[in-house]
């Protein structure tokens, strides 16, 4: 699924004759924050970056996540990646939810790039996928951007956000399809139910 986000073009990751995101993935993987979002333990080399692209495509085919390469509109150069990870426990559109993750590479110096990309993905998640709730884990980068794109601190309805005891780990950034925060306030002390 390709999305034109104005300051960025969202497309699938590529490692082919037309576009090669591997060098940008190698550069981005030098950042520990990007590595955490990417789900990798150590920086990538060229082969590892190719395997990363293949893994993202396979995860998309299995409906484990949706990943977009955030690219510069004219050159197609990879600037960032936005990842939407659907919760498995809640599948009806009224309660379906997903976690929104992203990383930015060294070439994404314009703060409007991640903001535009995330805003476009949020719109697609609610209108195209008919999700009811999105959440973002609190991080320094998320705290700086989430509120600006309409998220508020609150509790998600997904058990994937809960610890082994069933209590919400922390208050993430949340937004519902109606644009409101979800269950703002302190985390519940009782077992979380979706």
UniProtKB/TrEMBL annotation:
<dbReference type="InterPro" id="IPR016181">
    <property type="entry name" value="Acyl_CoA_acyltransferase"/>
</dbReference>
<dbReference type="InterPro" id="IPR000182">
    <property type="entry name" value="GNAT_dom"/>
</dbReference>
<protein>
    <recommendedName>
        <fullName>N-acetyltransferase domain-containing protein</fullName>
    </recommendedName>
</protein>
<feature type="domain" description="N-acetyltransferase">
    <location>
        <begin position="20"/>
        <end position="141"/>
    </location>
</feature>
<dbReference type="Pfam" id="PF13302">
    <property type="entry name" value="Acetyltransf_3"/>
</dbReference>
